[in-house]
Amino acid sequence: MSQDEVERRLTTILATDVVGYSRLMGEDEAGTLATLKAHRRELIEPKAAQYHGRTIKLMGDGTLMEFASVVDAVAFAVEVQCAMRKRNRAVPEQSQITYRIGINVGDIIVEGEDIYGDGVNVAARLESLAEPGGICIRRNVRNQVRDKLDIDFEDLGEVEVKNIARPMRVFSVVLDEKADALLTPVVEMPVKAAPSRRPQIAVALVVSVLAIGGLVWWQPWAPEFEPASVEKMALPLPDKPSIAVLPFNNMSDDPGQAYFADGMTEDLITDLSKISGLFVISRNSTFTYKGKPVKVREVAEELGVRYVVEGSVRRVGDQVRINVQLIDALSGYHLWADRYDGSLSDIFALQDNVIGQIVAALAISLTSAEAAGKGEAETGVPQAYDAFLRGWAYYRRNTPDDFAEAIPYLEQAVALDPNYSRAFAALAAIHWTSLAKDFTSRGGRWSERLGLSHQGARLQATKYLREATKNPVPLAHQVASGVQTFQGRHEAAVAEARRAIELDANDPIGYEALATALIYAGRPAEGADAIRKAMRLDPYFPSAYLVWLGLAQFGTEQFEAAAESLRRAAQRNPDDDIGLILLAAAQGHLGREEQAMSAVSALNTLRAKRGARLEEARAKGIEIGIDVLLAGPYTLKDVDLWPFKERADRERLRAGLEKAGVPAIAEVSAESPTEVAGATTVDAAAAKLLFDQGVAFVDVRNESHWNLGHIPGAVLLNFKSDFSEAGLLAVVARDQAVVIYCEGPKCLRSSKACVRAVAWGFEKVHYLREGFPGWKAAGYPVAVNN
Predict the structure, then answer these.
(1) How confident is the model at residue 556, as a pLDDT?
(2) What is the 3-state secondary structure (H, E, C) of 570-594?
(3) Residues 717 and 614 both lie in one domain
(4) Which of 161, 335, 436, 584 is the most buried (most CB within 10 A)?
(5) CB atoms within 10 A of CB 636
(6) Tell me, what CATH number does 282's domain have?
(7) Cβ count near 677 (within 10 Å)
(8) Is 726 helix (H, G, I), strand (E, B) or coil?
(9) Phi-psi category of 610—alpha, beta or left, where left has phi over 0 and alpha has psi -120 to 50?
């Protein structure tokens, strides 16, 4: 049909379906069909005639209708729902017929007796949003009828629905006493005299042809969206039902309630992942889709799962509404959808209802332990749960500042409920993670941001972990495993990680803890298996997983595979010095001198930046207790600090680093170093060329030496009192060249200043090791202050 031939009109579309139709048909097919026909004959058809409605299609449990008047359509829907409520009073609950109704005013395309287009699609989506026995309408419908019908409406807010470009404002019709007052007597449809048999047969044939044609066009059996393809799966499907829970939409009027919707989503993931009969994708991977318009098919194919859960959360004060639907991505059908209402105090019961429906829909059998644990609330104090979710949202962001923001909320949670194990575990995790990250290229920042020394962070982690392990959750065992590993208690570390997995068999962090413990315990092959399980559960895994895989491969002397894993890790996170150490060692064993030296150079540049930050911390009076791990070029002596149980593992690492050119020990000398990582060492002649080009010079000596003589045009920034990032920026921009000097090879100020400048992001730092004496000895110009 050409565009000119398309007939369009504005109309009112009403869509209905029967709640639980498949269950009703499965329990009593003949009885359900007979009851549906009776309701249609005795109620729906007479009321449709009364309000001038036209039935477009009948689709088993669904109906599509058109009304010329918006008021008539809403009045019809109200009468039907109120009348059905009365009809169901004498019927057992399991046998009751209940409808959902959605109404929209929109533009449609007309083709013969059929209508279609966005106006029809929106009505169908509104119907799916309605509660059993309820009516959902769009704002344009509410605006037309609110002054014409004496009924009330509940504002459900802006709702995003599939295949509709923009969010729409949705209202629910309140079916109370006002609505009941609209009921009018049912007027029986006139009965026509029976026609002769021949015309009856002809009419039946015509109706059959039309019905078949309508079904072919409407295709109620067709998928609701394009199904996923097993062949296009990025990862093979697991051998048990696999599921991904997408981040629930925050439908609250307050955008600040996003933490609550995220927390609800994560709790559902956690509860599902504890079911051994399911394969559940981790939160880390599913939350990469947050706020993005995604298709179920794409999610399933990218994550390698068959089922997808979508939903929304609306919170007003202590009242919570959850909408959830379960989708079979391979068939394209919704297996189940429902809405749950309750208060914050009912939140765990609401979550259990959702979990129960998913388990039932997928026909999962719970173990006795899983069934016994169902319904156990992590806290009986709703305010503690809310405080925990606020803190957990910050914890998940995994930055020093967010860790600091998380602590007050988590401390509030344990103050409200002193037995809140998960909150204690989160506090332990924050302090232990901060301490552990202080051993990386971000050293000194994490514990400092918490206002603690390293010893203080250790004590806090121990205190909170002690409380968490009284009634441990998986996170408590994960943290305990890390603590045991780095204290050299390897078998205890493995045991703690296995306990975490027993409590949550789908948590990739538990498998990461197990991999780490096994590798350091001298069982790298088992560690590789564990980290690969973590990667499958979290397809968008962090770069640290590649480091652990590389370490496991290194431990089994698969140096080529290790180098590839560690190269990928360095690409994703170039600031991970553990990965660079291992990459250098693997390349050393492979005899790749250039690549090995490149990794060592990158490593020492990171350590130089770290050393500068540590000096700043000391200047602020902050206690630094791990200098030996953090400062200076890496040496073979540093390998002794790795927590390997087996000496052979430590020596394998040492041998690879030795082949990579790492020195045995740091050189101890009163003279300044010949090289500074990230800076260019120049002699007096090279410095003169830069001087002639107008490059800035910075003298870091004290004023008395400066007055006796300095390079003309140089700026004095006394290293001990004036040399700072702001001070250097006042002299030169980060992307401009600068030459830094002091009193020659015996002076350490210029090398330390260069280390700091590199750490602050200055890109073209030149280190004049010979200093002012070398410049003067070469006969170059000198300025003197009288």
Answers:
(1) 96
(2) HHHCCCCHHHHHHHHHHHHHCCCHH
(3) no
(4) 584
(5) 15
(6) 3.40.50.10610
(7) 20
(8) helix
(9) alpha
Please choose, from the candidates 161, 151, 108, the residue with its C-alpha nearest in 3D space to the C-alpha of residue 130.
161
Six-digit token string for 749: 């100020």
pLDDT tens, residue by residue, 366-391:
777 777 666 567 888 989 999 999 99
Domain tally for the chain?
4
Q: What is the pTM of this model?
A: 0.59
Give me 24's structure tokens: 């009703």
Helix (H) or strand (E) holding 468, with range, is helix 454-468
Residue 206 CB-density burial (10 A; 0-12 exposed, 13-18 middle, 19+ buried) = exposed
Instruction: Tell me which residue of 141, 19, 35 sits closest to 78, measured CA to CA.
Output: 141
Question: 603-615: per-residue pLDDT in tens?
Answer: 888 777 766 666 6
Give the domain CATH number at 753. 3.40.250.10
Dist CA 481 CA 497 (whole Å): 6
**Does residue 365 sit in the same domain as residue 244?**
yes
**Residue where the block lists tokens 């609306």:** 314
Do 634 and 698 belong together in one domain?
Answer: no
Distance CA 631, CA 610 (A): 7
- Give yes or no for residue 475 having a pLDDT over 50: yes
Separation CA 744–CA 671 (nearest Å): 9
Lowest-confidence pick of 314-318, 561-565, 624-628, 760-764: 624-628
Task: Tell me if residue 190 falls in helix, strand or coil.
Answer: coil
Q: Which residue has the tokens 């059905």?
A: 84
Rg (CA), the chain: 35
Domain enclosing residue 251, as ranges: 230-373
Kindly state whether residues 64 and 148 are assigned to the same domain.
Answer: yes
